[in-house]
Amino acid sequence: MQTIQDVMTRDVQSIAPTDTVRRAAQMMDEFNVGSIPVCDGDKLVGMITDRDITVRSTAAGQAPETTRVGDIMSTDVRTCYSSQSVDEVLGQMGNVQIRRVPVVDQTSHSLVGIVSLGDMATKQSKGIEQALEEISAPSEPDRAQSH
Q: What is the pTM of this model?
């Protein structure tokens, strides 16, 4: 059985919740990524995505130089452990339609890596088609009004 530790990326860049949205966007550009784990020290507290920046910050007219990552990050983050099976995590990714999952230490819950659909596709093929189909299925737009 292949585990997450066999396919995950270990050298993960993170950002602090006190950093600015501009810094998050610069990091995304620099590392060519669309999401960055948000850590308070070594503890994972959220994720910030390019979509968070666009929808939660820019669309709301917030200034990227003064808006903090912690103000717009997603806090309901799905995580996994390095000891979990690739198949189990692939299934979870498909169920919730996400392409990246932070890997946290089972005891301390500190960030130890990240695993992406791409990592799994290049290092493991079983189950990838089903997960990709589920992740890519169209979802209904969120039309909720936030005030």
A: 0.81
Token readout for 135 is 């992740």
Counting the structural domains of the chain, the total is 1
| Helix runs in the chain, H state only | 4-7, 21-31, 50-51, 69-72, 86-96, 117-123, 128-136
Q: Does 146 map to a domain?
A: no
What are the residues whose beta carbons fall under 8 Å from the beta carbon of 110, sequence distance 6 or more? 39, 42, 43, 44, 104
* Cα–Cα distance, 111 to 105 (Å, whole number): 6
Tell me, yes or no, whether 141 lies in a domain. no
Positive or negative torsion for Cα 9, 11, 16, 20: negative
CATH number, position 131: 3.10.580.10
3-state secondary structure of 101: strand
Range of the domain at 32: 4-136
Residues 49-88 have pLDDT tens digits of 999 999 999 999 999 999 999 999 999 999 999 999 998 9
**How many CB atoms neighbour CB 53 within 10 A?**
23
Instruction: Give CA–CA dist 41/44, Å, rounded.
Output: 8
Residue whose tokens read 């390095």: 82
